[in-house]
């Protein structure tokens, strides 16, 4: 990670605008602008929050009551790209007048999913498009467009991996099972079995096509990797 990519959190003792303040006198521009300028100068973005918006309260009653959002988590765009799936939770204040913040890296470093590869065979199954659409269209909070896109891509990758595992991990066993069912049904075929046979044939053919595409894709990948290794070996010699 670039040393300039960093996270900064805690009590900044200032709001960025008057929407972060309840009761008490309104802040004038000269009070707010220095803090906003500092955030901009450091190229930081607000990571948002989960839970209560206001992190500080003066614990007074009546007209003297004030609460404000003084605590926050700020980060650079590079940090958000490295850790796209992050959650900032505002915890309960047990003794102090400030509520503590808890920053959770929900999926750790973004390099976790560098090994993900989209399987061309998934294009045959319309359900894969629905998996992608469901994850992509869900709102993602974040101060930077690139980090938001990264987070959506990682969500899609995890969802597709889980979907593929649940539906196609044992594709060889499913092909064998459907083949046996089809053989039995065709062997003992009676009037009215045509539709059931057609459905089994269609499902079996789709699985066989997916398996063929999957092996072709892996063969190309291995050939490409082998070519790189051969070239590197030749250059070393």
Keywords:
6 helices; Deoxyribonuclease I, Chain A; three-stranded antiparallel beta sheet; mainly alpha; 237 residues; 8 strands; 2 domains; single chain
- Give the strand order of the largest sheet, numbering strands 1, 2, ... along the chain: 1-6-3
Structural class: mainly alpha
How many structural domains can be distinguished in the coordinates?
Answer: 2
- Please count the helical segments: 6
- Could you state the CATH homologous superfamily of the largest domain? Endonuclease/exonuclease/phosphatase
Q: Using the alpha-carbon principal axes, give the shape.
A: elongated
Mean pLDDT metric: 78
Q: For the terminal residues, how far apart are their CA atoms?
A: 34 Å
Gyration radius, in Å? 28 Å
Strand count, sense and closure of the main sheet? 3 strands, antiparallel
How much of the residues is beta strand, in percent? 5-15%
Helix content: 40-55%
Contiguous runs where pLDDT drops below 50 for at least 5 residues: 109-113, 228-236
CATH topology of the largest domain: the name is Deoxyribonuclease I, Chain A
Topology, number of strands:
8
